[in-house]
Write a structure and sequence with these properties.
By secondary structure, the protein is α/β, with parallel strands linked by helices. The chain has eight helices and 13 strands.
């Protein structure tokens, strides 16, 4: 018997849990935000085998300006790092086609990784075979019906992909962003006291972002949206993440604007997207 944690809680995950339940100790990551490394670490604690099934599906958020592939990679990066940290010995993954961009990330976990591509009409049995130490089945089309879509997890989810200058890490990237912002976003000033950054817009104390040391390291710079006239207090984060394959994602996830949502969508949200794109263009010159 092995302790198996299934990263995911959809219909396939539930069927696999039922199938394995008679011979393994199995749990799902129900209600866990797998884009967050610290939540993945807690959810995977004690796992000997980790099964990666979680996948972003629309509608992801009430307002989404993030490619689903980028959110998938955030989750895969979190799960791969967490599986290594908790001492899992085997990572099993159900790939979505030959070009699934999560596969290289999971393979950089340093664990034994078994990837199922397809699975035929019975992916549950094929995954169970891998978990029990069998050979990887030959690729086969999956003829099952499309899983039911999830409800939006967040009010907002905005993720950008960047090319990071050589030799930089997540901390330097975040500090460069806050230093770049005042000269490139209209009417914006940034003040800093230790790890707390306050964004002032036209004299208004708009956002207060507090760096969380316990959730930050060379590969992750995590800032809690703690206060400000433009935010519901303590909801959401700004995160800069260097993935295991060296690519970089920056995201505002779970942010709750204080503006009425219909107004936010056509004002603050659009300005944020333009500013983040301009920052990416600037990064390419460094």
């Amino acid at each position: 018997m092995s302790r198996v944690v299934i990263a995911g809680a959809g219909s396939l995950a539930q069927k696999l849990q039922t199938h394995l339940g008679s011979r393994h100790e199995v749990r799902l990551t129900t209600g866990v935000d797998l884009t967050a490394r610290h939540e993945a670490e807690v959810a995977l604690a004690g796992a000997e085998v980790v099964v990666m099934l979680a996948q972003a599906r629309a509608p992801l958020a009430a307002l989404k300006t993030a490619a689903l592939n980028d959110v998938d990679q955030l989750m895969a990066d979190s799960v791969a790092r967490a599986a290594k940290l908790v001492g899992a010995r085997h990572l099993v993954h159900f790939a979505c086609g030959d070009d699934d961009r999560r596969v290289p990330l999971l393979e950089k976990s340093g664990l034994v990784v078994s990837t199922l591509r397809g699975g035929g009409p019975d992916p549950v049995t094929a995954l169970a075979q891998l978990i029990d130490g069998g050979a990887v089945p030959a690729p086969a089309p999956w003829s099952s019906s499309t899983p039911t879509r999830d409800e939006p997890r967040w009010r907002t989810c905005s993720v950008q992909r960047y090319v990071m200058p050589k030799g930089w890490n997540a901390t330097r990237l975040a500090e460069a962003y806050f230093a770049w912002l005042p000269g490139n976003a209209p009417f914006t000033k940034v003040s800093r006291v230790n790890g707390v950054f306050t964004l002032h817009l036209a004299g208004i104390r708009a956002l207060v972002l507090r760096r969380e040391p316990g959730r930050s390291d060379d590969d992750t710079a995590w800032f809690e949206i703690a206060d400000g006239a433009f935010a519901e207090r303590g909801k959401g984060r700004l995160e800069f993440r260097v993935l295991l394959d060296g690519s970089v994602l920056a995201g505002i996830i779970g942010y709750e604007p204080s503006l009425p949502f219909f107004l936010y969508r056509f004002t603050q949200s659009l300005i944020h997207e333009r500013v983040m794109k301009r920052f990416g263009t600037w990064l390419e010159t460094q």
